[in-house]
Automatic annotation (TrEMBL):
<dbReference type="GO" id="GO:0005737">
    <property type="term" value="C:cytoplasm"/>
</dbReference>
<feature type="domain" description="W2">
    <location>
        <begin position="252"/>
        <end position="422"/>
    </location>
</feature>
<dbReference type="InterPro" id="IPR003307">
    <property type="entry name" value="W2_domain"/>
</dbReference>
<dbReference type="InterPro" id="IPR057397">
    <property type="entry name" value="HEAT_5MP1_2"/>
</dbReference>
<dbReference type="GO" id="GO:0016020">
    <property type="term" value="C:membrane"/>
</dbReference>
<dbReference type="InterPro" id="IPR016024">
    <property type="entry name" value="ARM-type_fold"/>
</dbReference>
<protein>
    <recommendedName>
        <fullName>W2 domain-containing protein</fullName>
    </recommendedName>
</protein>
<dbReference type="InterPro" id="IPR051245">
    <property type="entry name" value="eIF5-mimic_regulator"/>
</dbReference>
<dbReference type="Pfam" id="PF02020">
    <property type="entry name" value="W2"/>
</dbReference>
<dbReference type="Pfam" id="PF25504">
    <property type="entry name" value="HEAT_5MP1_2"/>
</dbReference>
Amino acid sequence: MSTKEEKPTLAGVQIKTRKRNIAVALDPGSFAEAVVTIFEDQKDGDDLEKNLLAGVKVLEATALDFSRYGDTLFEVLFAGGRLAAGGNVVEEGKKLDTNVLAAEPKKEAMVPYIKVFQTLLRKRPFLIRPLENTLIKLLKSLDFYDELGRDKIAIATGRCFAMKLGVQPDRVLQSMLNDRMVAKGLILQYATTFFQDYLATESIDDLVSLLRKARLDTHLLDLFPPQKRTLADLDEHFKGAGLERLVEYNRKKQEEVHLQELKVALAESITADPPLPVSESIRIVHDAKKEWQLPDTEVIKVVWTVLVEAIPTVGKNTQQIKGAILKQVKAYEKLLNAFCGSARVEASLIVHLQVCCYEDSKLLKLFTDIVRMLYDNDILAEDTILWWAKKGSHPKGRNVFLRDMEPFLKWLEEAEEDEDEE
């Protein structure tokens, strides 16, 4: 008979049994029913906001696992129950009658629900991610809802941003760039309602900031179906929706893009070896101005900036830079005069010149000399220069430049008086 040999033990050491990790199965259905029951039990009268806040108070006192079922929580509050693939509400289980998609498609009707979200997020900021997930899920399922349903989703999303819940624009709004739904026109409807709701309480600057964070500020046209993706279509649609401020913003944004394209093309013509004829540079500017409907007041700024930036200044002293600018002005006098044909454009040029000289230390002491060059070459008129001195100057470096310009301004005024006497 054999006996089992005992293994040696270390005196004073207690052997502990390793505990197993017990995995608890996910049960979003039970969580959803618990949430529905809590809100239904707190109903007392017709005051929706009071009932919802009473429900939240009870909800926060429970031991429900919000970190595990955050998505389910917001699905119940948005749709009355858990959402299946495609945005449909799961059939089994109790449903919450008072939910976002059951409300009227109005800002006022959505605010009580957004206040509920605010209350939940105040103590549990980790729920921001589940809220974002639910907004994305609804946005990606727009084609499963009717027009009213899509408007409700858009308004609720707009309120989430307007009431500053902490939702990240790039996570949620980037989902709008969905080719399938864009082609159907669903994204345009959603975006239009979203913009209308947001601008009802926030400024156009706030909306622009939001779009910039979502990386959509240069993609407004991409929200339109391919067959209607022109600036004229964008203007007509958003003006018809009462979004003139958005139209103006987009027009300025497009203008900035085209002005930059013009700047690159003009710079290439001037810095080519050898430089292209001045007539070719004039044609480039003229064609761009006509094609993109660019204002003369902005075009002249681009022309001047390109001419100055084409001058090498490294290792040059003030007098050498002054001589190089004079040479450039004389060489491209026809280009400057071609697009500086009114007092308004001249005013734009001299103010732009002032800002450029203030911001570039190498040009700081040359402002008066450059103005004199432009005057001598009939690019700036004396009336424009005197207007600038009296009321048109930019705050940047105003006092310094006015002091430097004083002798020249005095000479202009005396010349004007002599002409009047004659």
